[in-house]
Amino acid sequence: MAASQRITHVLIPLALLILCVLMVLFPAETWHAGVRGLSIWWDVLFPSLFPFLVLSELLLGFGIVHFLGTLLNPLMRPLFRVPGSGGFVFAVSCASGYPTGAKLTAQLWEQKLVTREEGERLVAFTTSSDPIFMIGAVSVGFFHNVAIAPILVTSHYVAAFLVGLLMRFHGNVSVMDKQSINDSPSASEEVHRNRLLRAIYAMHEARKADGRAFGELLRQAISSSLRLIIIVGGLVVFFSVMMELLVQTGWLGGLYAITEQLLLYTGFPPALSHSLVGGLFEVTLGAKEAGGAGISIPLVYKAAAAAFVLSWGGLSVHAQIMSVLSNTPMRYGPFLFARAIHALIAPILVLLLWMPMMGGSEWPVLFQTGAKPELFSYTPDWGQILFSGFGVLGVVLLLLLILSLMSPFFLPRRMKK
Known about the structure:
The protein has 19 helices and no strands. It is mainly alpha-helical. Helix 2 crosses helix 19 and helix 14 packs antiparallel against helix 15.
């Protein structure tokens, strides 16, 4: 056994033992943190994740994902070097948030629809927050200002798109990539004409290969989705408690001080250190700290901090992704690199887009109304979350299909690595 493994085997039990002692020393704080994490899971994560996890498995079983994958392949393969089914993963991830993208990518790998490196590229840019959380919880609930929602959503998804373009350089060129590069114009035109028929055939073959009756397919979809959603809930509660104990013991003081010095060196308000440090561990805590950072801090910097937190995801989301990918050969390293790049690009986009979208005020030009931001409040509503999620799913899929149909006009036929 290597020395590093021996040290790890000692440090992990020691850390867990210290955590147990702290839970005994701070029972009230542990209870409230656990309840807070459970509330986040039940009010926000469960309704936004569970229906889409079940629906995705049903669509996989019936071959709809294979149908969409064939239609979207001319767009997704040249741009991101992933199969067309990655477009469906991206749409569902936009609608429901993390860790749906990783879960669907793992299912695609199980069905041999993606290779290890394609899966790593796909997880890298399909791990994103959902719009209803950014609009409802962050903009309205934490910032009490729905005006910043457009810039948060835009910067988050544009950064995800850019991460996807950067991650296309990850890994070697696959057989499908070479085939895409070497296709002649005449062959490409023939494939374009027969794309719908090939998509229908792919759906039929996938349904035959699956072979499960609808009742069995539904039972297994619900069962596997419940297992994942319970794991997600447990991790959210665990990191909520751990973060609260670190705050109570003052162990984060050193990290706060280091972050403040870095912010001062880069010219940003040092008071944002609590948001950034909290966001390293848990998304909700970091976004809440950004919204309540103080009226003396310019809103643009608080929005940039929230964009960083949403794009990084927090160690809670990282643990969720690692648990999903643990049964596949896909590695955590590329995902970690992509999260760091996403967390770097999103705040920069907020700073660049602030003046064009905000028009020199705290309200974007397209939201100039007489309403006051303090009047807005956020109460999680399952119906609203489901309705918004399915709306986003439909819009993103429709947009991707339109872009796929138009891809021969704006994508070069020989788009190399």
